[in-house]
Amino acid sequence: MNVGIIFPDQLSNNNPVISSLSAEDCLIIYEPLPTFYEISHHIQKIGFMISATRHYVDSLNIPCKIIHEKISKKPQTIEAILQSLISNSTKIHLHAIEPSDYRLKSELTLVSIKLGIEIIIHSDPKFIASLSEFKLWAKDKKSLVQEFYYRWLRKKTNVLINKEGNPEGNAWNFDKDNRQGISKLKDAPIKPLRFKSNNITIDCLYQCSEIFPNAFGKIDGFNWGVTHMDALAALDHFIEFNLGNYGAFQDAIDQDNPFLFHSLLSPYINIGLLDPMAAIKAAEQAYLSNKAPLNSVEGFVRQILGWREYIRGIYWKFMPEYKNLNFFETKSKLPSFYWNANTKMQCMAAAITSTIEYSYSHHIQRLMVTGNFALLAGINPKEVHEWYLGVYIDAFEWVELPNTLGMSLYADGGIVGSKPYCASGQYIKRMSNSCKDCHYNVNETIGKNACPFNFLYWDFLARNKKTFDRNPRMKLVINNLEKKSESFLATIQQQSKIFLTEIK
Ligand SMILES: Cc1cc2nc3c(=O)[nH]c(=O)nc-3n(C[C@H](O)[C@H](O)[C@H](O)COP(=O)(O)OP(=O)(O)OC[C@H]3O[C@@H](n4cnc5c(N)ncnc54)[C@H](O)[C@@H]3O)c2cc1C
Ligand code: SF4
To answer: How far apart are CA 426 and CA 450, in angstroms?
Structure first.
């Protein structure tokens, strides 16, 4: 007998597990992902995945038996379900989509060995490239630079490539046009499409909050889509209204509007509700029909075809060791304000408040605000990783871990980024409108009103100077550091120490 198994992040339309089954076979839908029980998750994230899974099951039109293991306080294990099927059948062939995180993949492999079940792994339709394509590209490369994988995939998929075989606009990347701060914003963004919850979703949210009474975040702001149709509608809305300004304001931060021109498509893409290539093609079409400028379209395409695919390749290439990397050997605990936004740092409060309300904050808030702070403050990467993995609606270990440990904390020592994304308050002042309302003064570095990002930034550089001396991309900042007096650095160190003790 063939047995298929589908997890809540494997809801693609063209699901290869389903097409492997016939009437006499059996499909297991397994909701209780182990990670839900291991770390604190946002209630909207669990509710979203469970509601999407139940809508998916309702839409299935297949003749075989379905075993639907729902989330509960004590769910049946995958092993126990398979064991019960073995007693009724002589031989089982288990069909699964390649689990997207390492732990689940190991668990499936172990269970299949233990029970003597043959396991057939299908490639995951929610990605554009296969893992063997990443391996092929990475073979013989000294360093794995995202930009080059992106260009390789652009050529391979023929996205934004003109008739002569060159990149549209004769450049691969228009990032230099995509760095406007919020002060340059003239047209207010159109609100992203949000969805009214039906009874299935309301029941799921209610059940999830019973099972996980201590889950993080607010439930009332939930208005995510939960079906393939919803995801397509969200894509159409983004392409029509916000793609045009996406590029220019990609790095801007508006404390009163956490969404700006971002697409909010990551949750849908990451559980299979939206095909990543469909999103890319829709953006490319907007460019070809003169509905959106190239800097926006290329910027959006690069995030999905470049970053998303690259990050997945990095995860699988370096796991399981990757998860334990801690380049700076940092040990501090995550401050409690990451869970309640109770901080006088206005930029941090805004990013965390949006996280609590929507299970979302956009990339620059994750990277340059909450991530930057954790980097400068020397927070232990494991603690930061567990926070990002739990609180964001789109968070799965394969994508969250390299973004957190690699891009944000440089805990991988330079696998993902060639230098740390560290910045003082001046960067946040340039990109956002938070500093004007802040308790701290972004133009001060020393003293009780000084912006913590400022003194922590210099302290971080001074602490790690020896390491950065070897990095040519850090030359400029290290030159600036060397111009600082001994007494300035001693004061910075003392001020940082006091501040970090106070926020513990
Ligand atoms: C510390 C940190 C943790 C992150 N954790 C996650 C995570 O758990 N899940 C996740 O999907 N993204 C993660 N990201 C990447 C990025 O922040 C989110 O993909 C993005 O904010 C999702 O919102 P959006 O759909 O509005 O994105 P948009 O700005 O509209 O971007 C379009 C799409 O590009 C893709 N994308 C953009 N940047 C990245 C990236 N760096 N890596 C992978 N895909 C990307 C996403 O699919 C996204 O939907 C993280 C970034 C950082 C710095
Ligand atoms: S002053 Fe500093 S802490 Fe306050 S909002 Fe600006 S960057 Fe953030």
So the answer is: 12
